[in-house]
Automatic annotation (TrEMBL):
<feature type="transmembrane region" description="Helical">
    <location>
        <begin position="56"/>
        <end position="73"/>
    </location>
</feature>
<keyword id="KW-0472">Membrane</keyword>
<keyword id="KW-0812">Transmembrane</keyword>
<feature type="transmembrane region" description="Helical">
    <location>
        <begin position="25"/>
        <end position="44"/>
    </location>
</feature>
<feature type="transmembrane region" description="Helical">
    <location>
        <begin position="79"/>
        <end position="101"/>
    </location>
</feature>
<keyword id="KW-1133">Transmembrane helix</keyword>
<protein>
    <submittedName>
        <fullName>Uncharacterized protein</fullName>
    </submittedName>
</protein>
Amino acid sequence: MSLHRINDNTLLDDEEYEDHVDGNWALGLFIIGAIAAGILTFNNLGILGADNAPKWLKFTIIVIASAVSGYLLSKLRNVVRLLLFLCVSASIIGFIAYFIWMQL
């Protein structure tokens, strides 16, 4: 069993550290999802037919869409981590294959 230092006064064992990292991923993905959904919803309010809606209704639509999107993305954090890993791996393999191809 190893201990991981996360700040000056906190040491975590392996299981606690994995929970800490998982929570950081969830928070980061929630923020990214909420910001992206908020921007997309704001820019596409005309498609929803809310161009002439009151300001409070537009605000409510944007906040609800942001919260739902952030929540769903944070719940899918393991899938996002897997897809990110696969994209990075495919990029590295593609770069190596390209380098070899150019040398032939």
